[in-house]
Structures are given as C-alpha cells and as structure tokens.
Design a protein that fits this description.
The chain has about 110 residues and is mainly β. The chain has one domain. A three-stranded antiparallel sheet has the order 3-8-5, with no helix packed on it. Strand 6 and strand 7 form a beta hairpin.
C-alpha cells in the first residue's frame, strides 16, 4: 500500500497536491527559510524543520538547488531524517564564516 503526502506546489500561494504517492515517484517542493551561519573551513548540517517530508523506508534521492551563488559556500549533501525533516549539508571553503542567504530552495525528492 502506497503512502501519500500533501505537498505545496512551487509558484503557487496556498495550492497543494494531495494523494501524491511517496514511493516510486518523484516530486518537487519549495523550501524557504533562514539557515544559521556555517563556520570557516568546515561542513555543517542544517535542519529545515519547516518542511516535513515522508520518512523514506527504502531510501530516497534528495537534490537541493540553491538559486544564487555565494562564493565559498556549497551544498554537498541532502537527506531526510527519521522525523521527516529535510537536512542540508553545507561546505564552507573559506577562511571566514558564511551566512547562507535567506531564499527559496528547490528540492527534488525521489523515493525508492
């Protein structure tokens, strides 16, 4: 039996999709939020708690697109934790702290 989720459609205000199967399909979400500072020369995971996703049983491929460039800052991994929160791992490749800009990220999730 497939599990289902209600997801916000990108580019809409309040419209959503219901009864979207969460396994064996791919769907897109838009996440907006403020991310805390990433200290120099390190990687750091940040939890996007405003975006609750179905918990993957057999795994998921999570792709995150940051719409703007910030020198020295990269996204090196993304995953869904056991509470359904989106976790993004940032890399700071500079000699000073970086505050990721507050913006809307595109997130693509494919459940296996």
């Amino acid at each position: 039996m497939a599990e289902y989720v209600t997801a916000q459609l990108p580019g809409t205000s309040g419209a959503s999709v219901t009864n979207v199967p969460t396994y064996g399909v791919m769907y897109f979400l838009v996440v907006t939020g403020t991310v805390t500072t990433v200290i120099l020369n390190t990687t750091a995971e940040r939890t996007i708690a405003t975006c609750t996703l179905p918990i993957p049983v057999n795994g998921a491929v999570v792709k995150v697109t940051k719409p703007t460039l910030q020198a020295g800052l990269g996204i090196v991994n993304a995953r869904i934790d056991t509470s359904g929160n989106l976790i993004i791992c940032y890399a700071n490749l500079t000699g000073s702290s970086i505050q990721p800009t507050n913006e809307t990220y595109a997130v693509e999730v494919t459940y296996l």
